[in-house]
Amino acid sequence: MARHDDGVVTVGRSRIGTFFANTTGIVFGLVMIFPVYWVLNTAFKPDSEVRSFTPTFFPNDFTLDNFRSALGEELFIPSMINGLIITAMAVAAALVVGFLAALAIARFSFYGRKAIILIILAVQLVPFLALLIPLFLMLQGANLTNSLVGVALVYLVLLLPYTVWTLRGFISGIPRELDEAAMIDGCTRAQVFWRIILPLTGPGLVATSVYGFIQAWNEFIIINTLNNPQKQNLMAWLLYNQTERGTAWGPLMAGAIITSIPVVVFFLIIQRNIATGLTAGAVKG
Amino acid sequence: MRHGKYPFIIGFLAVPVALYAIFVVGAYLQMFRLSLTDWSGYGTFKDIGFDNFVKLWNDEVIWTALRHNGFLLLVMPIVTIAIALLFAFLLNVGGGSKGGMTRGVWGSKIYRVVFFFPQLLALALVAVIFQRVYGPDKSGMINGLLPDSWEPWLFLADEKWALTCILIVLIWQAVGFYVVLFSAGMGSIGQEIYEAAALDGASRITLFFKITLPLLWGNIQVAWIYLGIAAFDAFALVNIMTVNQGGPNNSTQVLSMQIYLNAFKYSQAGYASAIGVVLFFLALSFAWLTLRVTRSDSVEA
């Protein structure tokens, strides 16, 4: 805390309080980080060391075997590809459908607008698990079980409320005067949407697509119920595989790391803007 | 801006409305319909009126599950919001002040990233990891750290503490997100407000209760709703972590787990749908109550 001791007058703050605050921060930080550290620690340990009753805080024999054995599993790569296809379909569709719906809600007043907003919000409030049975029946009836498209459709419905709500916040933040000025200059309404509102909603589109990616990529209950073992995503495969063979912690943790990589990469890219994305939905308009 | 807006409105809303009509409204209608039948999940079924609901009323496991949901609903949001507020505050204005400028505790930039870590791990992976943290013998993470002379703690295998173990994971997982959310909210509170208060000699505690808390109220309300829903669900953790999916001896049983078990394990899809109907109305009442309290802030459009 040397930086505090450079002769600057501190106002209204006791040094003991500062020390206490810093300590709390460190302790809490450790609690938050410890399980994550432990995943890494386990993934790089050989099996004998993982099973040992005396915990080691760093792998004594650093090894990549766990990653090799996870990647070598028969269904690992196919499940990863399934997950990517489903996620891409669901997120892309949610962006297009969600952006247009948000436009309609943010830029027009019409009969039933409030009802639509309420329904969008209400759906988010009910645990989706209650719908698992009827959804299974519907998709079965439409021949969409054991299919990537069926799962993507369900994910699209799950992602829409957040997408519409967040984008609506962003669009409401764009002054209507911009639309009007552009229309006076001869833009059609469609051109206003395409050339003015869409680019200005950019950060919102990024935020919602990252959120959508994480949700769809990490989902496992719906896909596990709808699809057979050949058509799972990586998360469902990982969990299913765990119960199947008893727990091989090393490869499981290695698999967990691989599963988390896309999410971490996304996070690092948009880290700075995350807070903006989170709060934008709350903007009134 | 009046003429020709309806083609846009209809065109823009047709797809989402259709999706909702089929996958949400349609699905709920079907759930209501099935809740009045004795359907097993395969083959044919017949209508049995409200028999499922009578059975529900007399089902002790359901009442136990309901109590557990209630416990999570009461404790989880309060504790999560309290911890998140405290840390968001520490990160933003809790550190020393320098030349009248308030700032976060030492290392607050790192914490901002660290607190988001749990968000990067899927809930399912968090469940798997904490299974290991809670391991009931010396290979468990906590028990491994305890002195050798101690009896190992049972955690999830202990009827008394199993639900609390789940609660802790729920909080651990959620807290980071709300630290970031509240931090963003605090960031939008003008520095000069804090500076003025600090110059007047306000302590950290005064700053927190007189400035931060009132100005963040909107964010807190949103957090409350989301956490409440997470507490209603809790399925992923209970499903993956607990002994016998809701055990030991139903001590971690929750409604969503009951739906799943009845529908896909016990071949009682009709009964599971009836539980679904109950969950639906409970969740909606919770949301309605919360929205009523916060009406002017969040539903205005």
Low-pLDDT regions of chain A = 1-12, 281-285
CATH topology of the largest domain in chain A: MetI-like fold
The share of residues in helices of chain A is over 70%
Oligomer: heterodimer
Q: Would you count the extended β strands of chain B for me?
A: 2
Keywords (chain B): Cell membrane, Membrane, Transmembrane, Transmembrane helix, Transport
InterPro entries (chain B): ABC_transporter_permease, MetI-like, MetI-like_sf
Subcellular location (chain B): Cell membrane
Protein name (chain B): N-acetylglucosamine transport system permease protein
Question: Can you walk through the features of this model?
Answer:
- Chain B: It holds the Pfam family BPD_transp_1.
- Chain B: The chain crosses the membrane at residues 7-29, 71-93, 113-134, 161-184, 223-243, 269-291.
- Chain B: It is a multi-pass membrane protein.
- Chain B: Keywords: Cell membrane, Membrane, Transmembrane, Transmembrane helix, Transport.
- The complex is a heterodimer of chains A (285) and B (301).
- Chain A has 285 residues and is an all-alpha fold.
- Chain A contains 14 helices and no strands.
- In chain A, helix 4 (76-107) runs parallel beside helix 7 (148-172) and helix 10 (202-218) packs antiparallel against helix 13 (249-270).
- Chain B has one domain: MetI-like fold, CATH 1.10.3720.10.
- Chain B has 14 helices and two strands; from the N terminus they run H-H-H-E-E-H-H-H-H-H-H-H-H-H-H-H.
- Chain B has helices spanning 6-34, 51-57, 60-93, 108-114, 117-120, 123-133, 141-145, 162-187, 191-199, 204-215, 217-233, 235-241, 255-264, 269-298, and strands at residues 97-98, 101-102.
- A two-stranded antiparallel ribbon of chain B has the order 1-2.
- In chain B, helix 1 (6-34) crosses helix 14 (269-298) and helix 3 (60-93) runs antiparallel to helix 11.
- Chain B is globular and about 75 Å long.
- The model of chain B is unreliable at 296-301 (pLDDT under 50).
- Classes of the chains: A mainly alpha (285), B mainly alpha (301).
